[in-house]
Amino acid sequence: MSYLIAILLLVTGCSGVYPVTTGSFLAPDTPPIARTVKPTVVIVGTHPVAVSAMTRMAQGFGAQVVERARLQDILDEHGVTLTNDAAILRVGRLIGATTIVFVETTVQPQNHTGAFYLADMGAGLINQTAYHIAVSIRSVQVETGLVRWQGSAWFPEPVNSPDQAVAIATAAAMERVLCEQRQGMWDMKHGCAVH
To answer: Which residue, among 34, 24, 59, has the nearest Cα to 150 in the 3D structure?
Structure first.
């Protein structure tokens, strides 16, 4: 049985895979809004796990997050559809948001087939779907349209648990942004080291 588990880990590429990240933070000329006023944030994305993870992080930083149902009410009331970033910023202004956080997620399935041989059981094939995962987040100031920060994370190899990987990648992308803000050095395995 342990042979089979080792083969599955090898076939799916999940053994010791860390997300690769990039990020940037625009240093403000004035103190951030978050320090003077509790920001109101709209989080826009299509993957529920990524949006939920970003919502938890934003609330953890003290932001007021506009509930998706409230956002939909405003859209319906004004007859607006979220077809592009400009429309989303317009809606942000309507509801008094200071920031829009865009969460873009890619989950791309890939079928893997692997052969195995066990002395007492014979040979066989394993068919399994693994996933390429990438998450990109960016914060746009509603008033100016400026991108305040952005972060991305992706797994360099396919993984077998897409929802868990999306949550990890979302957190890793945000951690990279925070590392850039603190002017730290990033290490793929250990995260941010501030000097």
So the answer is: 24
pTM above 0.85, yes or no: no
CA distances from 176 to 22, 180, 186 (A): 7, 6, 7
pLDDT at 101: 93
Structure tokens at 80: 């607006």
Choose among 56, 63, 154, 70: nearest CA to 100.
63
Angle, alpha carbons 20-132-51 (nearest 5°): 80
Delineate the domains of the chain, giving CATH numbers in brackets: 2-27+38-183 (3.40.50.10610)
Q: Could you report the average pLDDT of every consecutive run of 10 residues in the chain (195 residues)?
A: 36 57 60 60 92 92 85 77 77 88 94 73 78 93 88 90 93 83 57 56
Give the helix, strand, coil percentages of the chain, each rounded to 5.
Answer: 35, 35, 30
Structure tokens at 115: 């052969």
HSE of 25 in the Cβ direction (CA atoms, 13 Å)?
A: 16
CA gyration radius for the chain?
Answer: 20
- Element holding 192 (H helix, E strand): strand 191-193
Using an 8 Å Cβ cutoff, are 132 and 110 in contact? yes
Measuring CA to CA, how many Å separate 121 from each of 1, 116, 117?
Answer: 10, 10, 8
Supply the pLDDT for residue 124: 73
